[in-house]
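Notes to self after the Tuesday call (sharing in case useful).
The group wants a holo model before anyone commits to mutagenesis around the pocket. I volunteered. Ligand is tetrahydrodeoxyuridine. Logging inputs and output together so the record is complete.
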Amino acid sequence: MQKSHFKRVFLIVLDSLGAGELPDAAAFGDKGAHTLRSLSRSGRLYIPNLRRLGIGNIEGLGFLGTDDRQEGACCKLGERSNGKDSTIGHWEMSGVISPCPLPTFPDGFPQEILDEFSRITGRGVLCNKPYSGTQVIADYGEEHMRTGDLIVYTSADSVFQIAAHEDVVPLDELYRYCEAARKMLRGQYGVGRVIARPFIGQPGGFTRSAHRHDYSVEPPSRTVLDALKEAGRDVISVGKIKDLFAGRGLTETHPTSGNAEGMAVTASLAEKDFNGLCFVNLVDFDMLYGHRQDAEGYANALSAFDEWLGGFLGQLREEDLLLITADHGCDPSDSSTDHTREYIPLLAYGRRILPLNLGVRSTFADIAATVAGALDVEYPCPGSSLLGELTDLRTHLRARAVDAMHCSYSPYSGFRVGAALLCEGGRIYTGCNIENSAYSPTICAERTAFAKAVSEGERNFRMIAIAGGKEGVMQAICPPCGVCRQVMREFCESDFEIILVSPDGYECHTLAELLPLGFSL
Ligand code: THU
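Result:
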């Protein structure tokens, strides 16, 4: 496969912008969840630039408005990890699949953990329950001041939070305790974050101070960020990316206060020369609107992003690749304030990117593979790169022909054939062979594709890819039969290209080569 040589990749995560329930959503309590549909129903959504890139052409998102002349590539991705939080979502798109969700402790932490924590700190523990952060200091603050015991609490999220008064436990001491807790909480106790929650004031009037500090869990294995950094590429974090990866695999970080600053920082980075990945998280969608069940606010925020995007697209250079995606859902109109188990949308845009619909894919990790491929860095991972298809039309047609083989109706021969026919205007029609017990009415895959296209009004064709094999096992190549060649002769010029798919690639021929002296009236 040809080298891609992209110089800069912008990967922008619209936090919680789900594209509809995953097949296993019910197991997560999220049957029917659909973040984008809820935004669309709010009546506030105005996203012409995302539509231009093809968001409405993603399977199941037609309600956003399909676009016949999409300028970007689009698809949606399923999540293979067993979870629906930001950390696991970002890890998977960076190449690491999590078979277990990050642990939560609805009944508090087990005694052995508390004992170990007390041994390290020399202090007792108060509370040890899920609790609101302001309520916990009101209820336990005084006892904490009297005894010096630490207030340990959690929430519905995977967190171990330690609250202490700044006059009782000096900040540097609290931070040391948090670091020790971070080291202690591993494996089945490996919470997403340990959080220092210092507070100030007098009993009856305690308030949280500005010195909160988060200690995230490191990804359990090597991410594409690590691979990029090792290969000497820039890996720039904007927003909470740094926290999600515990700072690992990054060369530059830009913490932000929210979407507006995140977009401004990203636009200014686009003016700079760098060689690598700019990984952006825009958190307001999730934090301010998704969790608060505010569909209108969410739709307004997405419309604001879309407006910014219009300008940002103009900043992109020849060797840039833009990827826009999400990390999970958070349907603002469902019955809970929690995240939702959904597909994520993926839009790809760049001068070298073909405007294709890549359908539905099974893992967020395809993003990691694509980023690694775009920046020419070796990174084996569970995802497959979309780059070949996104930048090479023949590779894409090959994939479509192989896909079409799955639909083959061939009970008599057991020989499956798939074809993908590219029309002059850019549309692709696929076809499979359809057999008949009387044998002769059998229609070949190529003719199925031509029949579909011609009956939709198409008359001008650029190329066709053909794949075939017994029981679906692809054979070396599957050249078209004489009848199909003659059908091609009817509609195509002699330079019409015929791509013969082989198990590890394809070879190209012209119609003139495959059908010299074809019949015509
Ligand atoms: N077949 C095609 O679909 N295309 C060709 O060009 C050659 C043959 C199918 C027809 C039949 O279902 C099976 O392959 C075996 O002949």
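Two things stood out.
The chain has a mean pLDDT of 96.
The first helix runs from residue 35 to 41.
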